[in-house]
Amino acid sequence: MKNAIPQRYAIPHRYATRPGLYFTEDGGADAVVRSETADQVWLCVYEPVDQPTKFFNGAIRIFEDSSTPFINEIHEHEVCTRIIESMYVRETLFRMEGPNYGLWYVHLPKAWDGMRYAYRVDGAWDPKHGLRFNPYKLLLDPYGKGIDGKMELDPAAFSYQCEIGPDRKVRGSAFGAMSTVDALGKVPLSVAIDDRDVTKHDGDPVHPHVPWSKTVLYELHVKGFTKNAPWLPPELRGTYAGLAHPITLAYLQGLGVTSIELLPIQAKQDELFLQEHGRPNYWGYSTLGYFSPEPSYATAAARAKGAGGVRDEVIAMVNAMHEAGFEVIMDVVYNHTCEGGVEGPTVCWRGLDAISYYRRQKNNVGRLEDTTGCGNTFDFTNTHVVTFAVDSLRYWAKRIGIDGFRFDLAASLARLDGDFTKHHPFLYALRSDLLLGNLKLIMEPWDLGPQGWRTGGFGMPFSEWNDRFRDTVRRFWLTDTQPDSDGSVGMQEMATRLCGSADLFATDPGRGCVASINYVACHDGFTLTDLTRYVSKHNEANGENNMDGSNMNHSVNFGVEGPTREPAIERNRERAAMNMLGTLMLSLGTPMMLAGDEFRNTQDGNNNAYSQDNDITWLNWDWLYQTKKTPEMRRLETVSRLIAIRKSLDLYHHEEFFTRLTQLGLFKPSSRVQWYLTDGTTPMEKDWFDTSVRSFAMRLLSANEADILIVINGVDRDQRFRLPSDCEWRCEWSSSVVCGVRPGQGLFTERLNPRDYPDTNWTVSVDEQDPIHELVELVQAELKRQEKLDLPREAALADATDAHKTSVGPASAPTNGPEHETGSLDSAESTEPAVPTDSTSGMATDAVPSEVGDDTADVAEHTSDTDDGPADAPTADGRYDHDLWTIPALSISVMRRIQ
Asked: CA 760, CA 136: separation in Å to the nearest integer?
């Protein structure tokens, strides 16, 4: 036939340059997988025995009782099939062509959505040189979009000969003989998902695209956030669908955050250590599939539909969040895989091409380089590993709708020959990609390798977690307030953090303050509340003899280790927490909150709860449905107001630094920020370097709106401040309201009258006709049955810890007693008549905890015990200078200029 295509080119598959499984128009699929050093690769498809096979005509059947070993037989046939009666499954094996530039190919004549498949790979078994090919092991498709099943702790999951002892420990040498136990039925399989329909996302809501300058991040765990949520039906709790529920989204909107940062939702597998000890990896930093969502977070109904149903629920969750105005940021783990060290199981990369995927020790190639603490490290000097990661990220962004990514242990992703560089090819690949380069890209800027602390070192367009901000704020408001502290953090360090940490992030022309992801608490470490309750970690539940988790927490307990009913201690704790949150929200940069910190969530002192899939990590929502306002509700409303203030101020809606540091570490003058000492003077050079200077004011100037003044009193006594006299000021927000006081004009702080603050919770206002009325009644009935109605969780915890009231480590004495009148509504001498609360001041009626006073505290001002600060005298008409204010002890306040 004239112009016929030569037979050698008339092949049905296209020799794609990217691995993966691609459905084709003829009803089949092209399968492509990378293995540069394998001798042979097979694609294996799994079908039920009681259904007709799709491959009957082309497959040669082989039998289990054949005299020829199974592995030898599959080498002899292009397509063969066998029936495994014990599992009631048919396995059809397609011998692939290759390698062609490291890729292996095959065209399936038939393929379908939901098809289960895996790979088998044969090659050299030479563990000492890093080669661990074993055709008895089933390997996931690294590009697989769905996963079915999970790995069992069984010898079949390991490429080397081993046994599982009665203590669940693996016994055997990773450098010993190759295992000949077939892994089928003991490891997960890949699931094909047909997503060729290019119009399926046409009706999706528009992405919010929140500017960096207006972003408020909120880190949460999909399961933990909703597992105990009383507003959800049981089948939605702990699921993607539960997070997408209207009430869940309404709660997040009420809080005011803009961008939800999800702990890993890519498919995970528990590390060998955890499996041996019968514990799960709750956080999910142990990735099994980089294109597959974690099935366990999906509803039972979605899981019953298979991998496609799980994926659809994730997409629906993202769409619902977009519709509600939230961005969705994914925490991703490309630094290591779930396979662990060489002693770990073989489920994917190790069996495909361990030499190419993993970094190896230079002097012992049989061992893996580990800068992650997880047994292995992906080799990002290999172009194909970089491509693999970029392809995965693009898939989540394009197909699922993700708005950005947070990269776990990102320093490991940017090492060349072991050394970190901001010029790493992977970082350039992210920057230059038309899709990824326009998303929010957040780096965790450290790992366990040499010179692993790289905060500020990634350059544009990356933002980075700022651990220096975290530690500075904790030390200033917690450890440095203790009697035996050396006061290591002073005005200069705090001012640097308030101004966006230019010392760390002003690395590139145009790189701004939003590159600093400011945070005080995250999933890894103490919660905000536990920072004020525990000096020491309490990780006994982790089963590691309390040896795991950080010992450097910069935390205090204010006199009692754990929960307490002591009002003075509780006030001190709450004030410290609000000081830290206030600093977080009033600093330049991008603030990030940990879910639950807005309502006093506790993990009972566990600062490494990665393996706690239980009430330790599941958020407790009992407080939300009480009839009276609990301390949790009080904090929630105060934090919501604080976030609203930040979002209302254009002074924060920019990316530039206010000021930079000179080479000597001194601040250059700025036209947008001014600094004041308590006497109203400008700090001199000696003041910046004096760490004992802990009280100062920061004025942010604006040509378009009213200036604001951030007033910090870092000493444990009321302090008189002389504010700028060119205008009048009013208090917009203060952390001291949790102690029943706020800044007052003149010689006295202003006391808040508890009777002005209703104690009833929102639940009593729900009308019987309201659709939520029935839910409220059901929840309250259950709380009453459990004797939890109007009984805060803290009271129950305090009962359990009454015997544990001795101080552990450094602790401060209560500062709200008669000798320290800050915030004690029952201990001060009244010198002025009561002053009504100013409704425009920003001190909402939700600001004062019910325990801060009693009905006799009907005064608004009290004397200050401070004897320093600027002298003052009444004016001719008996009033005090308008620029003299008294700021409560240990507080941060926002003052707004009165126009």
From this structure: 65
- Look at residue 93 in the predicted model and tell me its pLDDT: 97
Rounded to an integer, the average pLDDT of 70-99 is 93
Residue 479 belongs to domain with CATH number = 3.20.20.80
Residues in the chain: 899
Contacts of 224 (CB under 8 A, 6+ apart): 238, 282, 595, 617, 618, 619
> Of all residues in the chain, what percent carry a pLDDT higher than 70?
87
Give pairs for 534-538: CB < 8 Å, separation 24+: 534/561, 534/562, 534/605, 534/808, 535/561, 535/808, 535/809, 535/810, 535/811, 536/561, 536/605, 536/808, 536/809, 537/605, 537/606, 537/607, 537/608, 538/604, 538/605, 538/606
Walk across the sheet containing 748-751 and list its strands. 741-742, 748-751, 861-863
Query: Do residues 154 and 302 share a domain?
Result: no
| Domain co-membership, 403 together with 268 | yes
Q: How many other CB atoms are there within 10 angstroms of residue 778's CB atom? A: 13
Is residue 221 located within the same domain as residue 160?
no
Burial grade of 862 (CB within 10 A; 0-12, 13-18, 19 or more)? buried
Asked whether the beta carbons of 210 and 404 are under 8 A apart, the reply is: no
Same domain (yes/no): 288, 143: no
**Domain-terminating residue out of 158, 192, 226:** 192
Quote the pLDDT of residue 67.
77
User: Across 112-210, where does the E strand assignment appear?
Assistant: 116-122, 125-126, 131-132, 146-148, 163-164, 170-171, 189-191
d(CA 474, CA 576): 9
Whole-angstrom Cα distance, residue 321 to residue 336?
A: 29
Crossing angle for the helix pair 467-477 and 567-585, to the nearest 10 degrees: 150
Mean pLDDT of 420-447: 96
How much is the average pLDDT of 59-87?
A: 89
Number of domain units in the chain: 3
**DSSP label at 386?**
H
Question: Do the domain assignments include residue 791?
Answer: no
The answer to the question of residue 342 being in a domain is yes
User: Do 276 and 423 lie in a common domain?
Assistant: yes
Among 651, 684, 714, the domain boundary falls at 651
Higher per-residue pLDDT: 74 or 801: 74
For residues 97-110, give the mean pLDDT.
Answer: 93
Mean pLDDT of 503-528: 93
Angle between helices 491-498 and 467-477 (to 10 degrees): 130
Report the chain's terminal Cα–Cα distance, integer Å. Answer: 89
Residues 182, 265 within the same domain? no
Q: Domain containing 693: what range?
A: 665-768+881-898
- Kindly indicate the confidence band of residue 793, based on its pLDDT and cuts at 50, 70 and 90: low
Q: Is the per-residue pLDDT at 4 higher than 50?
A: no
Is the Cβ–Cβ distance between 816 and 822 less than 8 Å?
Answer: yes
**Residues carrying an active site annotation:** 408, 444
Domain co-membership, 402 together with 513 = yes
CATH number at residue 120: 2.60.40.10
What phi and psi values does residue 789 have, to the nearest 5 degrees?
-70, 120
pLDDT tens by residue, 402-422: 999 999 999 999 999 889 999
Do residues 150 and 62 touch, judged by C-beta distance below 8 A?
Answer: no
Tokens of 222: 């999909």
In this structure, is residue 831 part of a structural domain? Answer: no
Task: Characterize the bridge pairing of strands 695-700 and 103-108.
Answer: unpaired
Mean of per-residue pLDDT scores for the chain: 87
Cα 583 to Cα 530, 716, 719, 734, 852: the distances in Å are 18, 17, 18, 11, 23
Tell me, yes or no, whether 656 lies in a domain: no
CA distance 666 to 676: 15
* Cα 764 from Cα 628, distance rounded (Å): 8
Q: Considering the entire predicted model, what is its pTM? A: 0.89
* Same domain assignment for residues 646 and 669: no
SS3 (DSSP) at 440 = strand
Band of pLDDT at residue 792, cut at 50, 70 and 90: low
